[in-house]
Amino acid sequence: MGFLYGLRIPLTLAERRTTAFRFFQDVEAWGSREASFPSSDLIGPDTPLTRLLGSVVSEVFPSHGGFLDAAVYDASGLSQTKGVRKTSLRLVWPGILVDADRAARVRDLIVNRLSSASAEGGQIAELEAKLKELNPANAWHSVLGDGAYAGRASVRMPLCDRVAPLPLRGPERRPFAPVGVLRFSISPEGKIKMEWLCREADLDHAEWIKIGCVREGEEARELTEWSVPAWPGSQIVTPSSVRSGRVKVRTAAGSDGVGCGGGLRLRGSTRGNFTAERAGQMMTVERRFSSSPAEFSEKMEQHLGKAIMDPDGALVWKQPGGDARIVMYSEDQCVKVIGRPNQVRQLAVILAPYTEAMEQAGGHHLAPSYSERLPEQDHQRSTSRSRPSEVFAPNVAPLSEPTPTGEGPPAVVQDPGAAPEAKGEEGHLHVATQAFEPQGQGELALQQGSSVQVVLDPEAGVKSQDRWVYGRLEDSGLCGWFPLSHSVRAQV
């Protein structure tokens, strides 16, 4: 790979992301047909964005020993997909080991800090203004996207070129070229000094490949110790619901081929042209804003453009290119985010600096991720849970207490007097009839023959195998969501 890159004939290889991988961040900014944003103004020893990244990473991963290193790669150039120039950078932190859940949560914290800093003015606000002046799509939640952690399981390798999608289907001539290794020196007082530890010419191509790959072997180290990201008014929302076609989940419209499912629901006729729509539930998250309606509207217009007026008087901002929307009700200062899980997550990041959780009893409850064991006491109280496809385990709330809000959708509290059949598969032991490989955070890996206890069946009344349930593996205690169609109830 390094030899061919030296001959200016880069390969187009990708590595499959392992469950535990080196922490990496993709920083991408769109330009115009003629110009792109200088990569040195985004990542470098003197940029405000790099300083903020180093500050957040050192805060979340405190066992750094006084310094952190990040290998920087640059794949900027003309994007054949959109026909405009694109600044594309990647930071790989070789000393930090994470899973997709943790990587996405750190990304959300960084976007929140950037949005807050932009609202306060200063260097971050000036940087954002320059990015949006070049291309209005360069909002912080887009510049630091989460697609590499949620939507796809493969990651382009260092020194390798990107392949444009159909109909072009060819190299874009912008491989990940090494820039250098940045060292973040952190003092006991928290002050950060940034400098180049080495540059491209200081290492051969093989070394740049080694330090830039994210995969870990079968004997991977334990995940790096971390401090769970949190901020005032933080809101835990679901990850991207995008799933690859490899995951065989049947839908109401049947499978995509003979003898297999594809997780795609077809809209309209199955003959001729059709639109493939990813199956996913719509969800609603409520927030409250403390400013005046006019001030809040001005903030939303900066991100999403002009609002439209609903017949009931509510103002609505729609996500460009999608059906997700933010609805503002001036009378009670309530804001609703409506859309699919991945869309709601992106819009919630925009809202975070300007809104807070709805005022209700109860505190924030951070449930364990799919890679962590569910405590026994939580397992015993798991009859009150929220809906499937979430990155975190469902929230727990006794029937007599109000349901905590502000950290994802409202928890589902079942009536103890409900009919037994309403619980569906809850409490039953299932055996996996086929393997299931997680494609997103919060999902539970299954091997054929694995025994899994169903902890929550939120769509029990649907009476369909095409639903997701929350379960706990009998042998390891790992918890997460999995498709019910991949298992059968064990014979007692």
From TrEMBL:
SUPFAM superfamilies: SH3-domain (SSF50044)
Domain SH3: 425-492
SMART domains, per the entry: SH3 (SM00326)
InterPro entries xrefs: SH3-like_dom_sf, SH3_domain
Family annotation (PROSITE patterns): SH3
Record key words, sorted: SH3 domain
Chain segments carrying region Disordered: 368-427
Protein name: SH3 domain-containing protein
